Amino acid sequence: MVRDAQPPSQERPRGAALGLPAEGPGALATFGSRVGAFLVDAVAAALVAGLFTAPSLPGNWSLLPFGLITVVTLVAFGQTPGMRLFGLRLAHPRPEERLALWRAVVRTALLMLLVPALVVDADGRGLHDRLTDTAVVRDC
């Protein structure tokens, strides 16, 4: 009997196709923890934008600090403040080096559109991560 080289995604652990462990440090982050980290970053960006737009609500002006905070912290530290709070980090093809600026910019721009982040593959990676060859993983 001929079998598939790799079992269907329902049978293999998340992240196995990427060479990541099923659990523990380095395992793919859950959808809930990624959403929580995003919300922390979004609220922080809205608060920063609110400093400049008060007494009005910041509205779309919060996208500017969100983009700046996300790109700068991903390149400098490999994680956003929200990721840090939730014990996550961004994995990329060259872990011994800082994240390339272009990857951070493209990933953040797609994340700000929100829809690419909701389109996930069998491993739970969003389209913004697939296009930049990155993955959000557990740090601890």
Mean pLDDT: 88
- What's the total number of strands? 2
Task: State the order of secondary-structure elements, H for helix, E for strand.
Answer: HHHEHHHE
Given as residue ranges, the uncertain stretches (5+ residues, pLDDT < 50) are none
* Percent of residues in β-strands: 5-15%
Proportion of helical residues: 40-55%
CA distance, first residue to last residue? 42 Å
Query: So what's the overall shape?
Result: elongated
Largest sheet: 2 strands, antiparallel
Please compute the radius of gyration using only Cα atoms.
17 Å
Tally of separate helices = 6
The strands making up the biggest β-sheet line up spatially as 1-2
Q: Strand pairing plus helix content: what structural class?
A: mainly alpha
What does this structure look like?
With about 140 residues, the chain is mainly alpha-helical. It contains 6 helices and 2 strands; from the N terminus they run H-H-H-E-H-H-H-E. It has a two-stranded antiparallel sheet with strand order 1-2. It is elongated. The mean pLDDT is about 90.
Question: TL;DR of this structure?
Answer:
The chain has 140 residues and is mainly alpha-helical. The protein has helices at residues 31-53, 63-77, 81-86, 101-113, 115-118, 127-132, and strands at residues 88-91, 135-138. The chain is elongated and about 50 Å long.
